[in-house]
Amino acid sequence: MTATADRTYRRGLHPLHAILLAGTIPLFLGALLSDYAYWSSHYIQWSTFASWLIAGGLVFAGLALLCAIAGLFHADRRRGPPLAYFLLLLITWIVGLFNALIHARDAWG
Predict the structure, then answer these.
(1) Residues 79, 11 contacting (CB under 8 angstroms)
(2) pLDDT digits (tens, 9 = 90+) for 43-100
(3) Fewest beta carbons less than 10 Å away: which of 28, 57, 77, 87?
(4) How many CB atoms lie within 10 A of CB 23?
């Protein structure tokens, strides 16, 4: 008698999706640190630098969001809730957009 075992392997993120997702972390973190530097020194350069970092973070997060939308259509339901991941990434992008809009009027107001 022969026993067979069905092995299922979880697929990770696509490498491009992982790079885009990992790129948002240092950009948004750098914007947070630049905001702190602007708060403590009031030099306009820190606000401008934070605005550029937020814009870069929004680009990376937007592209990762597109990958997450594509992942919704190819989702394996046993792998976990892909909709929760998509919604969390969408909320991150929306908060970053509001932060960019606040920075657009921050230093010149």
Answers:
(1) yes
(2) 989 988 999 999 999 999 999 999 989 888 876 655 567 788 889 999 999 999 999 9
(3) 77
(4) 17
According to DSSP, residue 108 is labeled T
What does the DSSP assignment read for 34-94? HHHHHHHH--HHHHHHHHHHHHHHHHHHHHHHHHHHHHHHT--GGG--HHHHHHHHHHHHH
* Count of domains observed in the chain: 1
Reported pTM? 0.80
> Which region, left, alpha or beta, applies to residue 80 given φ > 0 means left and ψ of -120 to 50 means alpha?
left
Q: Would 6 be classed as within a structural domain?
A: no
- d(C-alpha 2, C-alpha 98), whole Å: 61
Confirm whether 3 is domain-assigned: no
Range of the structural domain that residue 68 is part of: 20-106
How many Å apart are CA 58 and CA 28, to the nearest integer?
9
